[in-house]
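Morning, I've got a small favour to ask if you have a moment. I owe you a coffee for this, so here goes:

…
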Amino acid sequence: MQGIQLLEHQLGYTFSDQALLNQGLTHRSFGSPHNERLEFLGDSLLNCLVAAELFNRFPRLREGELSRLRVHLVREGTLHELAQALQIGDLIRLGEGELKSGGFNRPSILADAFEAVIGAVYLDGGFAATNAVVNKLFDPLFGGLDSLAHVKDPKTELQELLQSRGAGLPLYDVVTTTGAAHNQTFEVRCSISSLRIETFGRGTSRRSAEQAAASDALARARA
């Protein structure tokens, strides 16, 4: 079993419209139709479905604790790891420049492709099918969250780590804000000049976007 068939087997889902899956695996550098719109859809679905599962699994956790766990699960680093497990890097279609620069291994490209595949599942099979795929892929991660339920939020952890090293504090700034006033999506940049680290996070509030960016910055600072 190879390629697309293996991916479908790992997803636990077989596409009726293979063109949707192909689009989900197509980076904009390759041409159109590419996966950016599917990525947008998949990002929203992941946030919703992961939040719902956390709500059901952890009835005693407060809103802030649930938010921290959700950010941990849908951050770029986690999605990159899931994409690697699915071997999406072997299937993604990239332009020549991205191929030469190793785009098939780049965390941002693989995480975006993972989101796009989730969006493609939704368009092909609907909400219930998407929920089944997400729960299948995330189940091992959900099962290991008990020890993380009461950890400090990523921004606090990052600040404490940098202070312990005598490094400067991170700077956060909003890069883009999209959507209507009642349904906005924020993209925030986290910059640590002393370590030459720059990460980005997205969320439905500035705070959640900052936490997402801080989470990835924390992983890079610890590496």
